[in-house]
Known about the structure:
Elements: H1 7-21, H2 37-50, E1 59-71, E2 74-80, E3 85-91, H3 92-106, E4 112-121, E5 127-138, E6 147-152, E7 155-160, H4 165-170, H5 172-178, H6 180-201, E8 206-207, E9 213-214, E10 226-229, E11 234-238, H7 243-251, E12 256-264, E13 276-285, H8 289-308, E14 312-315, E15 318-321, E16 327-330, H9 331-339, H10 349-358, H11 369-381, E17 389-395, E18 404-405, E19 408-419, E20 422-429, H12 434-447, H13 460-467, E21 473-479, H14 480-488, H15 506-509
Parallel strand pairs: 3-5, 8-12, 16-17
Antiparallel strand pairs: 1-2, 1-4, 2-3, 4-5, 6-7, 9-11, 10-11, 12-13, 13-21, 14-15, 17-19, 18-19, 19-20, 20-21
Helix pairs in contact: 5-6, 6-8, 6-14, 9-11, 10-11, 12-13
Amino acid sequence: MAENLSDLEKIRLGKLKxxxxxxxxPYPIHAEQSTTSQQAIATFEAAEKEGTADKLGExxxxxxxxxxxxxxxxxxxxxEDRNGRIQLFFRVNELGxxxxxxxxxxxxxxxxxxxxxxxxxxxTGEITLLxxxxxxxxxxxxxxxAAKDEVVDGELIRHASLTDPETRYRQRYADLAVNADxxxxxxxxxxxxxxxxxxxxxxxxxxxxxxVLQPVYGGAAARPFTTHHNQLKQDxxxxxxFELYLKRLLVGGLERVYxxxxxxxNEGVSFKxxxxxxxxxxxxxxxxxxxxxxxxxxxVSSVAKQVKGSxxxxxxxxxxxxxxxxxxxxxxxxxxxxxxxxxxxxxxxESLASIMQEKGMEAKPGTPRGKLIDGLLSDHLEPILIQPTxxxxxxxxxxxxxxxxxxxxxxxxxxxxxxAGFELCNAFSExxxxxxxxxxxxxxxRSYENDDELRHPMDEDYLKAxxxxxxxxxxxxxxxxxxxxxxxxxxxxxxxxxxxxxxxxDEDKL
Length: 510
């Protein structure tokens, strides 16, 4: 290990060795934190108002050392815990020469420390712990990233910075340790997920869990990851969607179900795609696409109010209002307005590809019509949908699990929700006719025979479930990561996923 350490790490390793030689355990089993920094500050402020601050007694704090400032026989430090920061005041009168010497020689920025003492205010007015005892909780061998200086209330405070995105994603532990705004993003993410659960639970939805390893993948248009179960001698797939299993539960009488969990798609990586991502899907018996559309705008606006305090949010240069009702338009009308192409006038792939090529758009020969339409949407319409918008009435050939409209068999009752220039959600009136569903699987297999991304395999067990009878229902899917992007104003999926997938570096290969 030592040969790969920097000079600073070797110095810290020496301090670690010295602590052990002195009989000090640098990684003790037990910690005795009695309160957090902000709880301690709030308690002291309340006691001051009541005139009882001198009667509070001792408290024990714990956290990472963020600043150390020796001043003769005094040492000031700042520690940080999950709530914030607080100042520690070490004085030789309370601790003695030996303890003060150990603090100066053996403790560094980044170490975790436990300190007990009484709360006080310094002459500058800062609430501070006058330390009467302390101990090491964890010695940091590697220093946190290079420091930058900041002046706060006239005092020079040293902070650690980590700004290179690639390094931040690869070393998220360091990123979180030194960037408070990153920690805020993931606290916000947790708040968003709690708010979604609260919304659905309050409407009598049941949270469930369905298999991640599936013998037949389905429920979406994507290329799966494949694995193999040795004992069963069976190929399995990491799920690309929860859909077909959740709808099996509708057959079984669970009329309102939802799941929040991971999906896996063997596809490209971009600012809005990651191979592993978090989804919310819910299914509601006796509902259709229109009811789900109303529920969607109510849910997203409700979550925004809980998390942000308002339905009006800032995203880049845009101010977006998530309050219902959202704008609604047919996919056909919206595409025609954005591209000048009426997809209904081009009922086959050859005709649509021809008009796209005439307009200088990419249209590879042999591409199915549905995929051409999806490309038109992604490239020319989606980026300009800034305010919340529902597009509805989608082609049947790219929606194999949705019900056709009664007056137009080639169009299905499906909608997608867009805002901030990206797709947020997808939903439809669920197809519950087992004969029609079987025919759709056959057609999809034939139309996309050579296209791994859009081919939808036949799921015989799902068809068997449908034959028992599934109630009419509406289904919904939304990427949690994208909702977090929206509500935090962040343009990259990697910023809202704790450990995004990255290409291997030479260092990773060692």
